[in-house]
Design goal:
Layout: E1 5-6, H1 8-11, H2 23-32, E2 37-39, H3 51-61, E3 64-65, E4 67-72, H4 81-96, E5 101-106, H5 114-134, E6 139-142
């Protein structure tokens, strides 16, 4: 099992604006802190969303890509075209780094239409997870739980 520093702690400041496009810095700091891996947020990887650039940064720091956090709304009955395109990009990036886990999470957008949105979430996560498995990438689901989450009970 791989462990990594979660980049979300940097994202929390100013909803990502404070540390935008600083994944290389996060990788360096995580390595200096003794971590052997990192878990960036797919939509927030900046210049390191390129597999080659990411590989160079990881190698320079001597750490691995432990996981990629991948969040989408997934409110519709099926993935939207954009959600599918983004998911396929995240899956391909994980596949480039064997053993890297894709951690899916629904972005919290409110508790309206709760029953239907929960059903939609399950359908969408299952669709993504099937493609993840077909690509040979391990996956997990993080049930985000702020007050606006569909996963909160």
């Amino acid at each position: 099992m791989k462990f990594g520093a979660e980049a979300y702690t940097w994202f929390m400041k100013e909803s990502g604006a404070a540390h935008a496009n600083r994944l290389d810095h996060m990788i360096q700091i995580s390595a200096k802190a003794g971590f052997t891996g990192i878990e960036p947020i797919y939509s927030w990887m900046g210049d390191l969303s390129s597999a080659d650039c990411l590989a160079d940064s990881l190698q320079a720091a001597g750490i691995e890509l432990a996981a990629i956090a991948f969040g989408q709304s997934w409110n519709a009955l099926e993935e939207t075209e954009e959600e599918r395109r983004e998911a396929d990009g995240a899956i391909a990036l994980c596949a480039r780094f064997p053993g890297t886990l894709l951690c899916t999470v629904q972005l919290p957008e409110g508790r309206h239409d709760l029953e239907q949105r929960r059903l939609n979430l399950v359908a969408n996560i299952n669709a993504v997870s099937r493609r993840v498995a077909e690509a040979g990438v391990p996956a997990s689901f993080h049930p985000n739980s702020p007050k606006t989450s569909t996963n909160r009970t």
